[in-house]
Automatic annotation (TrEMBL):
The gene is znuA_3. It comes from Vibrio thalassae. PANTHER family: HIGH-AFFINITY ZINC UPTAKE SYSTEM PROTEIN ZNUA (PTHR42953:SF3), HIGH-AFFINITY ZINC UPTAKE SYSTEM PROTEIN ZNUA-RELATED (PTHR42953). This is High-affinity zinc uptake system protein ZnuA. One of its GO terms (molecular function) is metal ion binding. Keywords: Ion transport, Signal, Transport, Zinc, Zinc transport. The keyword Zinc applies. Pfam families: ZnuA. GO terms for biological process: cell adhesion; zinc ion transport.
Length: 243
C-alpha cells in the first residue's frame, strides 16, 4: 500500500487506499502499534490479519519507554526483520489464504515449504557474511532493527529515536555525539524515508562513517523472492559500512 520512501510511522491514507482495503480479500498488517493509520479503516475490510496479535509471535520490548507524555506500546512492531518471526508470519498468511480458497490448499502449503527452505539457506549465508563484523559498533537512526540484531548477534550501540516521526532534541544529539567519541562507533546509519541531515551532522568531525539501512525495503520490487533480497539488503548495508 505504501509508496517508495513512505514510512508506516507517519503515513496518511488516500481515498484510493480506502478502496483497496474495502475491496481486498485479505488485508495483512502488523497491528495498531505500527500502522496507526489502519486502525479504523481495517474494521471495514472483508478479512484482516494482525500479525502482532498471533499468540505464537514473541515480541521484544523497546530498550526504554518513549518518555514523551503519550501512550505507546513498549513492544517492538518491526517483526519482519527476524527470520524466525518471518516463518510465523508466512504460516499465518498461508492459513488465512487457505480459509479463503480451500481448493488451493496444496499449492499454498507447497509454497510455504519452499519459502521456509529458501529462508534457511539465505539465513545461513547471511550469518557467514556478518560474522567478521559482529563486534563492530554502530548507531541506527531509529530502533527498528532489534529483531535482526538479536538474531545475528550484532553490536548496536544505540539509536537516535524510537519514534522517527517526532523531532529529536539537541540534548539527545549531544549525548549521541559524546557516545560516538567515547566508544568505538564505526558507523551511523540513516534511512531513506527520513532526512539524513541529523546523521550527517552527527558524523561530521568524528571518525565514524555514514551508511544507510532501509527497514521496509522500499526499493525492492514486490515479487517472488523479495523477502530474501530484503534480508540481504540489510546485511549488505551493514557490511558495506562496517567492513
Amino acid at each position: 500500500m505504501l509508496s517508495q520512501n513512505a514510512s508506516p510511522h507517519d503515513y496518511a491514507l488516500k481515498p484510493s487506499d480506502i478502496q483497496k482495503i474495502q475491496s481486498a480479500d485479505l488485508v495483512v498488517w502488523v497491528g495498531s502499534d505500527l500502522e496507526v493509520f489502519l486502525a479504523k479503516p481495517i474494521a471495514k475490510s472483508r478479512r484482516s490479519l494482525a500479525l502482532a496479535n498471533n499468540e505464537n509471535m514473541p515480541l521484544r520490548t523497546f530498550t526504554k519507554p518513549c518518555g514523551c507524555g503519550h501512550k505507546h506500546s513498549h513492544y517492538d512492531p518491526h517483526i519482519w526483520l527476524d527470520p524466525e518471526q518471518a516463518k510465523i508470519i508466512a504460516q499465518s498468511i498461508t492459513s488465512e489464504l487457505i480459509k479463503i480458497s480451500p481448493d488451493l490448499k496444496h499449492d499454498y502449503l507447497s509454497k510455504l515449504l519452499q519459502f521456509n527452505q529458501t529462508l534457511s539457506l539465505t539465513v545461513e549465508r547471511i550469518k557467514r557474511q556478518l560474522t567478521p563484523i559482529q563486534h563492530q559498533g554502530y548507531f541506527v537512526f531509529h530502533d527498528a532493527y532489534g529483531y535482526f540484531e538479536d538474531y545475528f548477534e550484532l553490536n548496536n550501540l544505540g539509536h537516535f529515536t524510537v519514534h522517527p516521526e517526532r523531532p529529536i532534541g539537541a540534548k539527545k544529539l549531544i549525548t549521541i555525539k559524546n557516545t560516538i567519541e567515547d566508544q568505538s562507533v564505526q558507523c551511523l546509519f540513516s534511512e531513506p524515508q527520513f532526512t539524513p541531515a541529523l546523521v550527517e551532522q552527527t558524523v561530521r568531525g568524528t571518525r565514524a562513517q555514514k551508511g544507510e539501512l532501509d527497514p521496509v525495503g522500499s526499493m525492492i520490487a514486490v515479487e517472488k523472492g523479495s523477502y530474501f533480497r530484503f534480508l540481504e539488503s540489510i546485511a549488505n548495508g551493514l557490511i558495506q559500512c562496517l567492513n
